[in-house]
Amino acid sequence: MSGASTKISELRLEHVSRGFGGALALDGLDLTIEGGEFVALLGPSGCGKSTALNCLAGLLPLTDGAIWLDDRRIDGIPPEQRGFGMVFQNYALFPHMTVRANIGFGLRMAHTAKAEARHRVDEALNLVQLGEHAGKFPGQLSGGQQQRVAIARAIVMEPALVLMDEPLSNLDAKLRLEMRTEIKRIHQTLGLTTIYVTHDQEEALSLADRLVLLREGKVQQIGAPEDVYSDPANRFVAGFMGYRNELELPVTSVAEKTVVLGELTGTRREDLGEVAVAAIRPEDFTVGDGPNPMEVTVEVVEYQGREQAIQARTSSGAALHVRADARLAPGDRVTVSVPPERVLVFAAESPAAPEEVA
Amino acid sequence: MSTIPAPKRLTLRPGAWLVWGAVAFFLLILLGVVGAVVVDSFGTKWFDGWLPSGWTSRWYGTTWREFDLGSVLWVTLEVALAVVVVSLLVGVPAAYALARRAFPGKRVLMVAFLLPILIPPITYGVPLATVLYKFHLAGKLTGVILANLVPAVPFVILVMTPFIEQIDPKIESAARMCGASTRVIFTRILGPLLVPGMLAAAILVLVRTVGMFELTFLTAGPDSQTLVVALYYSVSAAGIRAQQEIDAMAVIYTLSMLVLLVAALRFVNPTQLVTQIKETD
Amino acid sequence: MASVAHPRIALRHRLAERGLDRTLLLLIPAIIFVVALFIYPFVYGLQLSFQPQPGSEAVRRYGSGPFADYRDFFADPYLRNTIWTTLKIGLPAALFNVLASVPIAYRMRGRFRGKRTITTILVVPITLGTVLTAEGLLAFMGPAGWLNRVLMDLGVVDHPVRLTHNYWGVLFSLIITGFPFAFLLTLSYLTGIDPTLERAAATLGAGWWQRFRHITLPLLAPGLGITFCLSFVLAFSVFPSAIMVGDPSGQTRVISIAAFHAAFEQYDYPMASAIAMIMGAVELIVIGAVLGWRSRLYRGATGGKG
Q1: Are the Cβ atoms of A76 and C10 closer than 8 angstroms?
Q2: Could you give the CA distance from residue A222 to residue A204 in angstroms, rounded to a whole number?
Q3: Fold category of B59-279 in CATH
């Protein structure tokens, strides 16, 4: 049992792979995580992010590779002896135990002295603001409260590593924002090394110190949120990071990083063929004249408070998502523009992000 | 009977009247069947007329002594409890494996476990009794218990598999992440969660074993009869015994079944006695 | 150490991927049990049925060949006819129980006060079992029983109707024990059908018969198939009631009586096994036919929560 050895200096994943019946769900993940870091594994469903988490937890054996905790190899150790904490998507609380017993279960397994255990459970309860619910059973709590219990259960041991498997995806939108702040606050308070799996790029960007983008079991990009956001490594990452507009256009000319695609000028991100894809974020457009002017007809307008989400159509018939402050109405014909450095050009053959996240 | 719910409006359609009429008729017949036995068991003589000519409770004493019901009930209890315990011990682990794992040959195994429930006891009871006699197990308690286990174990598996399936395997993972060993997971996590299911399975097996005529009949010897078999023999020996004695015995049987039934219904839904499809409300 | 341990882990997890791990050891007691107490006796009985007992009637008539008992069974009308006798009792009983349970369950599928009481009362005959039911029927429907008394007082009949010790007695007993079973099964299938489906049909202009005919019945039909099979299995193995309220040497000499007679009165186990096998085969034919019909129906989700 090593549950008490809390702070680590480094967790190293070396070529961690996991196959299911021949196909690799996780293909050679190399990653070094520093103590206290908050790392998010991000990708669409089936990208291997949950597989990676379960491999780390020890719930799935590795097909290949190794996991090192400082200088100790841990991938052969069963999950109950790794001393990690884990938060599950559906909470996985013990339904027959009170909130207090749920949170204290790990301490009981570690044979912590009664008084000490009580004190630590109280602390955890305060941290997740559930003090007055300690005697209730999970069935009597709301979804958000249950997730707080699950988090408290995972952190009460101050484990070397906290694993979170899409902990917010079962909550409604408002609660999700609230819990996001909560998780951030807890991480800032305790400084526990955390690996967080999600398919929601907003969640990952707002929580993590570093993002790992996965696609079909392979790493696409590793970097700080602002790097990944403004400088996506490929078309897949761009699609995932909110570059919702993808215009497929013939390449007119290429000069260093500058590409001209007909009337649109953009920044080249990789080697191009005859046809390329220009990826543009809706919020990078401005209504009015400027660089890369485009004449569009407004089709759908969604009011979103300070801004409007607009679906428009270019004269060539391509659909365009634009966010604008200006008040527009369906049928308006306006000019929108976008600076060339905000138009990322990828090869048309590059894999795109799946529809549901684009 | 007071149990038929009074229709809220008297303007029910003829179809509804027909249905409720049929139910009432069925319940009336049922009442008559059970009532006739009960009334007769308390009568002194009843040859003609609506009711016996006099009332007495002495038949219960005579039937208890002459059929040695004390030891018959004891045998019934022994058989039933042994069957319940063994079938749970064998059935629950198997149900766990079936609920948690998909493996080659699982369907074949499921069919093998289901057959003893689908095939009527008398069909496999004859070859089973033959085998048990060959190994000198039939004719005594062991044989009766073994024979009754044949439908009981699959029944436990059938009840417990969906029950275990609806317990999230993530809960086991969560316990593991908290440092619980396999043994602790079974004793502290799964055990308490499975208690309601095991209780339901145990009571259903108990009811079915006490009521199981065919298998016990085929394998029991004179000292290993359960109540239902003793009742059958007393009926076929009618003419030697007073009818009221037999009826008194039938009432004792009914009462013991009703006690079990009331106990059972505290824990299980009536439909569970025949099926495992969960009733949605 | 790690490099040594690695291939072993890999092999174990390759097996685990196919679902083979130590959890499956939990199945072993149950497998041993089903093999020893169910499959072995069945196989034993099957091979025993091909080894006619020397000196038995079958051997005298058809020699000691493996099929002597089967030939004897099908040649002797007294034995052969037990199949028809059983089917004549079992099929109508099962059919009646299923058909009668549909309208009643349909009427009771909603929630109302006393529903649990009614279902509880209906469970009583299942637990009473055939022996007690038969005993009660003898008293209730016998020549001097309450039923005949009511019929005569009402002037429906002049002298007592014979309802016991014949075909009708057995049929009644099968209905009394079998109907609640069929009813509860049908009810649980019906409550598994999402009631909003019918409401949706109603908003589209379907009357109650159309709703039942086009929405409920098609979704219920596969369940009814299963209900019929289980009811038939119960009715087909009719044994104590055929002896007690029936006419065990004539009208209600069912196949299980023949098997019992061969085994425990003539001590001709091969013949008894042969009859048991024939019994199982006939039953499987009927069930197979019903399941074959069922497989052509829609069997997907019924929208219920269960």
Answers
A1: no
A2: 12
A3: MetI-like fold (1.10.3720)
